[in-house]
Amino acid sequence: MTDQSKYGAESIVVLEGLEPVRKRPAMYIGSTSQVGVNHCLNEIVDNAIDEALAGFAHNIHVIVQANDYLTVFDDGRGIPVDIVPKYKTSALEIVMTKLHAGGKFNQGAYKISGGLHGVGASVVNALGEHVIVEVRRENKLYRQEYKRGKPLYQVKKVSDSLLHFPFKNGTAFSFIPDKEIFQETREINYSIFKKQIKERAYLVSNVDFKIKNEKINERISFFFDGGIISLLRDLNRNKKVLHDPIYIKKQVEDKEVEVAIQFNDSMSENMYSFVNVINTHEGGTHLTGFRIALTKSINSYAKKILSEKDLGEAFTGDDIKEGLSAIVYIKMPSTNLQFEGQTKTKLGNSEVQAIVQQAVGEYLDVFFEENPKVGKDILSKIFLAQRARLAAKAAKDAVLRKGALEGATLPGKLADCQEKDPALSELFIVEGDSAGGSAKQGRNRKFQAILPLRGKILNTERAYLDKVLGFKELKDLVIALGMGIGETVDYGKLRYHKIVIMTDADVDGEHIRTLILTFFFRHLPDIIQRGHLYIAQPPLFKVQSGKSVKYAYSDDERDALVKEITQAKQSSIIIQRYKGLGEMNPDQLWETTMNPENRVLKHVSNADSQETDRVFSMLMGDDVPPRKKFIVTHARLAKLDV
Question: Considering 50, 504, 591, 613, which one is annotated as catalytic?
Answer without folding.
Answer: 504
